[in-house]
Amino acid sequence: MDATTLLTTPSMIVSEFRCDAGPDDRPFAECRTGHSIAYVRSGSFGCHCRAGFFELVAGSMLVGAPGDEYTCTHEHVSGDVCLSFFLSKDLVDALGGRREIWQVGATPPLPELMVLGELAQTAADGNSDLGLDEVGQILASRFIEIVSGKARKQDTPTARDRRRAVETALWIDDNSHAEVDLEQAARRAGLSPFHFLRLFSSVLGVTPHQYLVRSRLRHAARLLADDDIAVTDIAYDVGFGDLSNFVRTFHRAAGVSPTKFRQASRGERKILQERRALN
After folding, report:
1. Please, what is the Cα angle at 120 between 11 and 107, to 5 degrees?
2. Which of the four pLDDT bands, split at 50, 70 and 90, describes residue 156?
3. What is the pLDDT of residues 172-231, one digit of tens each?
4. What Cα–Cα distance (Å) separates residue 34 from each residue in 66, 105, 153, 224?
5. DSSP H helices in the chain
6. Quick one: which of 170, 184, 176, 145 has its CA closest to 239?
7. pLDDT tens digits for 227-262?
8. CB within 8 A of 175, min separation 6: which ones?
9. Do the Cβ atoms of 231 and 261 come closer than 8 Å?
């Protein structure tokens, strides 16, 4: 099995697991040391655990609880790919799910969870302005709601809460050129990452990572319009890790490439006019 770690934070570790085992391979037992949810992206496998035996296919979720033992088999097909989220005890406590929820073993392909699993993969691929840790928390929270049958109560932000959200948004904007993650922003607000994500999204209508990406895009648009700085330099100056990610994200937002946006800002209005005519 090949494992690739995609994200590591104090609250969550996200990994991709690619297994090429088949019917002739001998299964082996694994023991969970913490809470986890694994979204099956492709392939199929069987799983023996305390909750029973499950056949998992694309869209299913394998649920891990501390101390539980799991034995996975590949009796029908060879291989599978899973996107796995390993959650810290503090995050699990913040999520508030009862102990028995984490002992269900697995869930079938449920539309409410499948769409979030694919959204998480999109974030992992760098094709979303949502953070992978944000989607992971949303997925875990939704999993608890579905299994428990109880929707989480939406709290009404107080004036103090709103101030926290606004002040942190201003801090994110001021530091958008640097590495800023959910954990840092939550500490700035004096909240746990889980509660901060819910508060920020409730008050401002976007997640912290969405706001971070959009701040970077706003600063990039200003530089493209006002200066002769190279596009590559702008990408790095505003906080994007590589040029291709910047070009892809900017095009998704503006409908044109950074270069064409710069041309339009300098009087070549026809470019944007043609773009609007196509929409």
Report:
1. 85
2. confident
3. 999 999 999 999 999 999 999 999 999 999 999 999 999 999 999 999 999 998 778 999
4. 4, 14, 26, 47
5. 89-95, 111-124, 132-148, 159-174, 182-189, 193-204, 208-226, 231-238, 243-254, 258-265, 270-278
6. 176
7. 789 999 999 999 998 999 999 999 999 999 999 999
8. none
9. no
Structure tokens at 45: 């496998």
User: Looking at beta carbons, which pairs linking 234-242 to residues 24 or more positions away fall under 8 Å?
Assistant: 234/258, 237/177, 238/176, 238/177, 239/176, 239/177, 239/178, 239/179, 239/212, 240/216
Contact 271, 264 (CB under 8 A): yes
Residue with tokens 């050129």: 177
CA distances (Å), 182 to each of 69, 150, 200, 208, in order? 32, 26, 11, 7
Tokens 């913040």: give the residue.
94
